[in-house]
Amino acid sequence: MRLNAYLARAGVASRRGADELIKAGRVTVNGEPGQLNTFVESRDRVDVDGRPVALQRLAYLLLNKPAGVITTAHDPQGRRTVVDLVPPEPRVVPVGRLDVDTTGALLLTNDGPLAHRLAHPRYGVEKTYVADVEGEPTDAILGALAAGVELEDGRTAPARVLRLGQHTVELTIHEGRNRQVRRMLDAVGHPARALHRSAYAGLTVDELDPGGYRELTDREVEQLRRSGPPPA
Ligand code: URA
Predict the structure, then answer these.
(1) CA-to-CA distance for 13 and 42, rounded, in angstroms?
(2) Phi/psi class of residue 88: alpha, beta or left (left: φ > 0; alpha: ψ in -120 to 50)?
């Protein structure tokens, strides 16, 4: 794997941070200065600042993200992030993102290739959201959400929409555009007062308290690997 990916898997830094370490000449591979295009295998010896680093085990965590926490691996402004809610080792990063006020299912992993596939639009991971909305949407409004609504970045794909209560709507989508569900609800005149992702790729967080997390089982990881189209 590429040296920056190796350093990320070793928990040294994010890939971008690893690039900075490499450029600064702080990384050696088998005693030679590492380059941005250096490839390494598990038998290679990698040192940072003269100290050896080793790959960490692959980890897959499902977090029930609470409101008020941002979805990033590192916030330059020092705000609380989803990574602060899970163990520091092995170092994992979120797959995709939830808005700061959105709660619910968020996957974190250090399996870069799987994370990349899951976050890619063509993979079409199914995500289910429960929205508490302003006003009482009519059946016609729910039909419009299901058929697809016009947003500034184009029409949304068909969605599954269910009424769960007077002000509560469940939407299942396969896309993952920025603030998509909030923008869909704004577009039909029923802004979200609260938004919760109840399921991501079939993984639900009903049994987790807000801020709680659990490791995926081997079977769940296998299912994630198998679902969707094969990698391009
Ligand atoms: N759609 C949104 O509007 N917000 C999220 O956090 C996720 C999906």
Answers:
(1) 18
(2) alpha
Residue 97 CA: nearest ligand 1 atom is 6
Q: Under CATH, what is the fold of the domain 60-121+203-226?
A: Alpha-Beta Plaits (3.30.70)
Question: How high is the pLDDT of residue 228?
Answer: 63
Strand partners, 64: 105
Counting from 1 in the atom list of ligand 1, the atom nearest the Cα of 71 is: 6
What is the whole-number distance in angstroms between the Cα of residue 177 and the centre of ligand 1? Answer: 8
Residue 29: strand pairing partners: 32, 46
Task: Give the model confidence (pLDDT) of 20-65 as tens digits.
Answer: 999 999 999 999 999 999 999 988 999 999 999 988 899 999 999 9
**Residue in 19, 47, 75, 99 annotated catalytic:** 99
Report, at the CATH architecture level, how domain 3-53 is classified: Roll (3.10)
**CA dist 83 → 11, 27, 70, 113, 137 (Å):** 13, 25, 9, 19, 36
CA of 102 to the centre of ligand 1 (A): 7
Could you give the residue range(s) of every CATH 3.30.70.1560 domain in the chain?
126-200
Dist. CA 89 → ligand 1 center (Å)? 28
| Binding site membership of 220 for ligand 1 (Cβ less than 6 Å) | no
Q: Render pLDDT for 64-123 as a digit per residue (tens, 0 to 9).
A: 999 999 999 888 898 999 999 999 989 899 999 999 999 999 999 999 889 988 988 888
CATH C-level class of 126-200: alpha beta
- Residue 71 Cβ inside 6 Å of ligand 1? The answer reads no
Question: Which ligand 1 atom is nearest residue 183's CA?
Answer: 3
